[in-house]
Amino acid sequence: MVDSKPGGPRRKLRARARILHLDIDAFLASVVQLTEPATFGQPLAVGTGVVASRSYEAKVRGVETAMPLSEARRRCPELIVHEGDAALAMRFRKRVGEIVGRFAARVELTSLDDMYAELQGHATDPIDLASRIRAQVRTETGLSVAQGIGATKTLARLATTKAKPGGIHWVRPGAERRFLDPMPVEMLPGVGHKTAETLATYRIRTVAELRLVDRTLLAETFGVRGEELYLKARGLPCGAGDFVRELDVEHGRPGGSWGETSDTREISRTTSLWEATSDPESLRAMLTYLVDRAAKALRERGRIAARLDVVLGLASGGPSAFEARERPRRSPTSLHRGIALAPPSSTTRVLVERAIALLESLLDEHRCLVRLVGVRLGRLRMAVHGQQERFLFAEDEPGLDLRGQRIDTALDHLRARHGFAAVLAGEANALRGSLALGRDGFRLRTPSLTL
DNA sequence: TCTGGGGTCCTAGGACCC
DNA sequence: TCTGGGGTCCTAGGACCC
């Protein structure tokens, strides 16, 4: 490549690229503390089963994220446990995104509580810019943020971990290796439990040690990820994923400067059940509800799905003792079945029908106690607008449900005005009575994370 | 201490076609 | 009647992230 030589255009680009990573401190817990004054200043954990987020006061008492709540309570008996509210959190997140968008060329919202921004040029001191962002977020939302600045996303994100809570850390050009070298390898994004374990067998524990490993050896051992490790250990950008991505114009502010990424690959909705069950009727009801929610999210993003997967999480024991005796093998903890959708669809009625068929086939083959139900819509593509679709396909095209589409359009409008619960899809109505129903839908097991 | 939900990306093996 | 190889798509599963 021409531009790979020293001093070439790519090198210049890299030197100039400046990415800011922003992470909202103790996000879900902070949202609760800001909206429920009684919890302010108290040790607070948000989550169901495990800690999704905890306040500073809980942290200093030894409560950590991802820790089972039982353990958290043991360490901190006065802990207040809150279910959280995903919809409310999303509104806070959106406001933070808007604020950052005033200061940056573009913003990419990556997860619930963090985002990347691309800073323009060298005109402004990045520390000064980050300070202004922090002050503005504090003023307008009450939230505290930590920020990292670096030449790549990886560097910016690692800088943020140094800045927590509430601080700002800039990895200046030229200081990358000094910054990375002492870190344990598992701090590099992409190095999880398994990879760290494998590296440890080679006595590789820090980034400095990782940097001594031959490039081809890494590639042979870890494949594509090995190549990425080589680059990340040097603070070099690895692929398009290390630059701030394009925005979703439709889903973000029209013509605006921030949004979610435009290339969403899949949309899934999953929930644990309040009680494990093998009752096909209640499983169908819950799956119908989840497909309806996922389909709505799909349409909001102007997408259709060419793939649908159903997942069942099994209660301990997996298949029944009877089945285990018949076919002695390690019992699976989950069952999964998927199908390609041709033509692709975003129609609730079509998607529900397919999902239920998959569920039925799983239940026919396995006798099991189910504790978790989920649906995933994948292979997403841009939707063709309804009007055009009518010209492109005949009314009787199999799998294309024009009546269903009209129903969805009406449904989406109705729900935009009166809330999701205004109408429920077919079998989902069976959940009435057994689950609390609010304006935005049923209260599922984990309200802090389920939309 | 034994557990949440929503994502991304990679790989392996099989089906199928030319 | 038996024999090749490559490309592509599909499915299932796993590692990893916050």
Can you offer a commentary on this structure?
- This protein is of the alpha+beta class.
- Among the domains are: 178-241, Orthogonal Bundle (DNA polymerase, domain 1), CATH 1.10.150; 267-442, Dna Ligase, domain 1, CATH 3.30.1490.100.
- Helices cover 39% and strands 21% of the residues.
- The protein has 17 helices and 15 strands.
- The protein has helices at residues 9-16, 27-35, 56-59, 69-75, 86-101, 126-141, 153-163, 176-180, 193-201, 207-210, 215-222, 224-232, 280-300, 321-326, 348-365, 386-392, 402-418; strands spanning 19-24, 44-46, 53-54, 80-82, 106-109, 114-118, 145-150, 168-170, 258-260, 267-277, 303-319, 334-345, 368-382, 437-438, 441-442.
- A hairpin with a 4-residue loop joins strand 5 (106-109) and strand 6.
- Helix 11 packs across helix 12 and helix 13 (280-300) packs antiparallel against helix 15.
- The two termini are 46 Å apart.
Per-chain topology:
Blueprint lengths: L8 H8 L2 E6 L2 H9 L8 E3 L6 E2 L1 H4 L9 H7 L4 E3 L3 H16 L4 E4 L4 E5 L7 H16 L3 E6 L2 H11 L4 E3 L5 H5 L12 H9 L5 H4 L4 H8 L1 H9 L25 E3 L6 E11 L2 H21 L2 E17 L1 H6 L7 E12 L2 H18 L2 E15 L3 H7 L9 H17 L18 E2 L2 E2 L9
Parallel strand pairs: 2-4, 5-9, 7-8
Antiparallel strand pairs: 1-6, 1-7, 2-3, 5-6, 10-13, 11-12, 11-13, 14-15
Helix pairs in contact: 5-6, 11-12, 13-15
The structure holds a DNA duplex (18 and 18 nucleotides).
